From TrEMBL:
<keyword id="KW-0521">NADP</keyword>
<keyword id="KW-0028">Amino-acid biosynthesis</keyword>
<dbReference type="InterPro" id="IPR050085">
    <property type="entry name" value="AGPR"/>
</dbReference>
<dbReference type="Pfam" id="PF01118">
    <property type="entry name" value="Semialdhyde_dh"/>
</dbReference>
<feature type="domain" description="Semialdehyde dehydrogenase NAD-binding">
    <location>
        <begin position="2"/>
        <end position="141"/>
    </location>
</feature>
<comment type="function">
    <text>Catalyzes the NADPH-dependent reduction of N-acetyl-5-glutamyl phosphate to yield N-acetyl-L-glutamate 5-semialdehyde.</text>
</comment>
<protein>
    <recommendedName>
        <fullName>N-acetyl-gamma-glutamyl-phosphate reductase</fullName>
        <ecNumber>1.2.1.38</ecNumber>
    </recommendedName>
</protein>
<dbReference type="Pfam" id="PF22698">
    <property type="entry name" value="Semialdhyde_dhC_1"/>
</dbReference>
<dbReference type="InterPro" id="IPR058924">
    <property type="entry name" value="AGPR_dimerisation_dom"/>
</dbReference>
<dbReference type="InterPro" id="IPR036291">
    <property type="entry name" value="NAD(P)-bd_dom_sf"/>
</dbReference>
<dbReference type="InterPro" id="IPR023013">
    <property type="entry name" value="AGPR_AS"/>
</dbReference>
<keyword id="KW-0963">Cytoplasm</keyword>
<keyword id="KW-0560">Oxidoreductase</keyword>
<dbReference type="InterPro" id="IPR000706">
    <property type="entry name" value="AGPR_type-1"/>
</dbReference>
<comment type="pathway">
    <text>Amino-acid biosynthesis; L-arginine biosynthesis; N(2)-acetyl-L-ornithine from L-glutamate: step 3/4.</text>
</comment>
<keyword id="KW-0055">Arginine biosynthesis</keyword>
<dbReference type="InterPro" id="IPR000534">
    <property type="entry name" value="Semialdehyde_DH_NAD-bd"/>
</dbReference>
């Protein structure tokens, strides 16, 4: 299958390139950029020297429809809502890595992304691509809204407990920490070395655009609407994301029973690894892979469950999950192109 990437010269785009070059059923055909048309991808990214010699081309839906079957949009919020519908209308399979089509309520997008939403009718047609939870809906889909990085780690960390009704949703607190690639390759003062190094910084408290996405999907799992507390922090590392999640327990399970609940929930999910008791995951143990590792702690004193969930933000949080979704859509091996061992140390 021939593939195109719009936003190929961003961090998620270039990770899609790396992963798709090793995918057994994909041939990379068209790389689209915004400001660097005509340049070769290896001129922008010297690590691709001798690996890929493609030119970056301007966006052209007709050209994409002529040359590829699947298009990945790795563009900032606000771009795919204008470019992607034309590709859908031409019959292309579209996987959007941005937040433009994740929220089903247009007003919520406007409120949290501070811009006009995509057309409501289009929002209806996008399948939320959290592969482990929405597997059935993803099979055969034409259009995927790939989840955000924090929602991926948070929802995978919460799903078994929420679907079992074992926690009180109104008590959920998510403490998120992300490496700097999470904010993309564009230049910004907040991402300068001297600003980020040797420091940990809280940002977008009470205002993070992933808040309504997590709430929407928790409501879909539980049938119950509730507001969460979600706080995000920037960590001086390139890749990796951790969500430490707290919630009050409503069922009297032992620590062993909690682990059994999580292990059996993810029995058929090749990318979720549940850690044994007392073994909490570190970002370093998943970076470079499509794994989401989850560790649990149960405190009988406070009746609180603590879940630690880690991913590589650019892989399981973006490019890897997008490819996992394509594999599911096509009925290929879910692990095709994604059998990656984490890079350690
Ligand atoms: N980085 C991460 O960990 C994650 C990112 N995402 C989401 O994935 C998307 C891409 O993120 P990321 O790779 O980090 O972003 P980057 O800023 O690194 O890259 C953005 C890409 O989009 C292109 N672009 C910008 N404006 C336009 C436009 N108007 N038309 C066409 N192309 C455009 C840029 O091209 P040019 O440089 O030529 O302007 C660049 O190739 C975002 O929506 C992000 O929120 C989701 C999960 C995790
Ligand atoms: C470290 C950092 O700044 N991360 C970004 C992640 C952005 C992102 O992935 O945005 P969408 O999923 O909404 O497209 C942030 O917290 O806003």
């Amino acid at each position: 299958m021939k593939a195109g990437i719009v936003g190929a010269n961003g961090y998620s785009g270039v990770e899609l390139i790396r992963l798709l070059l090793n995918h057994p059923y994909i041939e990379l055909e068209m790389l689209v950029s915004h400001s660097t048309n005509g340049q070769k991808i290896q001129d922008i990214y010297p690590h691709l020297t001798g690996v890929l010699n493609h030119e970056l081309e301007p966006f052209d839906a007709n050209e994409l429809a002529k040359r590829v079957e699947v298009v990945f949009f790795a563009t900032p919020a606000g771009v795919s809502k204008t470019l992607l519908p034309e590709c859908l209308d031409k019959g292309l399979l579209c996987i959007d890595l941005s937040g433009d089509f994740r929220l089903k309520t247009p007003e919520e997008y406007e409120k949290w992304y501070h811009q006009a939403p995509a057309e409501a009718a289009r929002l209806e047609t996008a399948v939320y691509g959290l592969a482990e939870i929405n597997h059935k809906q993803i099979e055969g889909a034409q259009f995927i809204a790939n989840p955000g990085c924090y929602p991926t780690a948070s929802l995978l960390g919460l799903a078994p407990a929420v679907k079992d009704g074992a926690i009180d949703l109104s008590t959920v607190i998510i403490d998120g920490k992300s490496g700097v690639t999470g904010s993309g390759r564009k230049a910004s003062i907040g991402n300068l070395y001297a600003e980020v190094n040797d420091s940990v910084k809280a940002y977008k408290l009470g205002a993070h655009q992933h808040t309504p996405e997590i709430e929407q999907e928790l409501a879909a799992m539980s049938g119950e609407k509730s507001a969460i507390t979600f706080s995000t922090h920037l960590i001086p590392m390139s890749r990796g994301l951790m969500c430490t999640i707290y919630a009050t327990i409503t069922k009297g399970y032992s620590e062993r029973e909690w682990l059994d609940l999580y292990q059996s929930f993810y029995e058929k999910s090749p990318f979720v690894r549940i850690r044994p008791q007392g073994n909490w995951p570190a970002t370093k143990e998943v970076v470079g892979s499509n794994f989401c590792d989850i560790g649990l702690s149960v405190d009988g004193r406070t009746r609180r469950l603590t879940v630690v969930s880690v991913i590589d933000n650019v892989i399981k949080g973006a490019a890897g999950q997008a490819i996992q979704n394509l594999n599911i859509i096509k009925g290929w091996d879910e692990k095709a192109g994604l059998s990656l061992t984490p890079v350690y140390p």
